[in-house]
Write a structure and sequence with these properties.
Blueprint (H helix, E strand, L loop, with lengths): L9 E4 L17 E4 L6 E3 L14 H24 L3 E6 L2 E7 L3 E9 L1 E5 L5 H14 L10 E3 L2 E4 L4
Parallel strand pairs: 6-8, 7-9
Antiparallel strand pairs: 1-2, 2-3, 4-7, 5-6
Helix pairs in contact: 1-2
Length: 159
């Protein structure tokens, strides 16, 4: 597992409506994110910045990356520690603040995973494993703002 890993993506702007960037309102913010062997991801900017609300924006993707990375570590740790996760759903939220000098930056992201575990599993351990998952999350270790986790553990009812 140790080593250096490389990731290659292509982001191609598809928003030239005929006049290029002749003016702020003259072009679309649309783009396509591509990686070999994977489905394309339609992207744009946040609607607050003239983007298409039906497409993923970089801010959505950053919050999603934090959530997905945490989930993957959490599931790994649960498997290793004998906690059987039956369901996992995170309603994560990020807060970005605009700054006239720098453009803007994220102030925080809060993960709110609801995890359903087996009836005989240790709920306290299941909750504690979120701290360890956060410690190991590659993406959380790479950002310069707080990433909080507010987990909710649900014990699966007997059939």
């Amino acid at each position: 597992m140790k080593g250096e890993h490389h990731y290659s993506v292509t982001v191609e702007w598809t928003g030239n409506t005929g006049a290029g960037t002749a003016g702020y309102a003259a072009y679309s913010r649309d783009h396509v994110i591509q990686a070999a062997g994977k489905p394309d991801v339609p992207g744009s900017s946040d609607p607050a910045f003239r983007g298409d609300a039906s497409r993923w924006n970089p801010e959505d993707m950053l919050v999603a990356s934090l959530s997905a990375c945490h989930k993957l570590w959490y599931l790994h740790l649960c498997a290793v520690e004998g906690v059987t996760v039956q369901a996992y759903r995170d309603e994560a939220e990020g807060v970005m603040q605009e700054d006239p000098e720098r453009g803007g930056a994220f102030a925080s992201v809060t993960l709110r995973p609801q995890v359903t575990i087996g009836a005989g599993d240790d709920a306290a351990l299941a909750e504690q494993l979120h701290e360890r998952a956060h410690h190991f999350c590659f993406i959380a270790n790479s950002v310069n703002f707080p990433v909080r986790c507010e987990p909710r553990i649900v014990i699966q009812s007997s059939p």
